[in-house]
């Protein structure tokens, strides 16, 4: 179920409930069942969906609501606020400050869109007066440096990498040193991806983080991976201190469940979403407008 369908299904469930003249347990139960079904079909984890049900029921206690209360409205508001809290871990991500040197490290599986997203992120801060720079510490994927170089050149962002050095930690440290000297206030480090979550990747990630002490580790996740999202996000969270998530490919078959699961697994906020292959196809992620848009 793609994102628009998830929103559509929840909106339909709420509209159906609104048609009932009397909101009783059956009407509320039917509405919540429809919402549950829509979330499960969008690959949100069962445990998370169950929590949503419980929380909505806590807000909407039909027995204790005073007569004359607009129950339709209370249910609608409860659903909206539950969807928002699913996406809001309540802990804001680190935000780079202009003129104050920050190091941001990107992690994620190969193909998630990590390298593309590094440049999109740099490009977001550039017009705000930052001096971003890019370090390619991905020595695993052949062509990773060329790709970063190409994107960085297009966006006119200084970059660092090596065709000969095979030690990602050395590249990361050298790049960091170079850009610190050049007064870059936002040094972005692209790390290696792998096809799957494996020990070697996590060990490398841990070592790069130890050597560069990033202010923020961003986990980049393909928004269309469905059920795998929670496990993948959790594995990255356990090995690197992930502080924020960027969900990519939200233009394709992403269903929203990925974003919801990544937040639940990492307890970190989604800060941007990728909406296409081009460098400008990148949006700040704000929970309330996102949920409003989702529900139409
Ligand atoms: P990496 O292996 O994680 O570094 O991934 P890449 O940055 O090489 O991206 C893998 C593929 O996904 C490339 O073809 C990108 O153009 C594409 N891609 C990245 N972000 C997005 C996005 O937001 N939307 C779409 N449709 N494609 C994306």
Structural class: alpha/beta
The beta-strand count equals: 8
Main sheet makeup? 8 strands, mixed
**Rounded average pLDDT:** 90
Q: Please list the strands of the largest sheet in the order they lie side by side.
A: 3-2-4-1-5-6-7-8
Q: How big a fraction of the residues is strand?
A: 5-15%
Tally of helical segments: 11
The ligands bound in this entry are:
guanosine-5'-diphosphate
Overall shape = elongated
Order of helices and strands: HHHHEHEHEHEHEHEHEEH
Provide a short characterization of the protein structure.
This protein has 11 helices and 8 strands. It is an alpha/beta fold and 296 residues long.
Describe the structure.
The chain is elongated. The chain is α/β, with parallel strands linked by helices and 296 residues long. It has an 8-stranded mixed β-sheet, sandwiched between helices. The mean pLDDT is 90. The protein starts with a helix and ends with a helix. Helix 5 (114-125) packs parallel to helix 6. 50% of the residues lie in helices and 14% in strands. The structure holds guanosine-5'-diphosphate. The site of guanosine-5'-diphosphate has 19 residues, from helix 5. Guanosine-5'-diphosphate is lined by residues 108, 110-116, 147, 193, 248-249, 251-252, 274-277, 281.
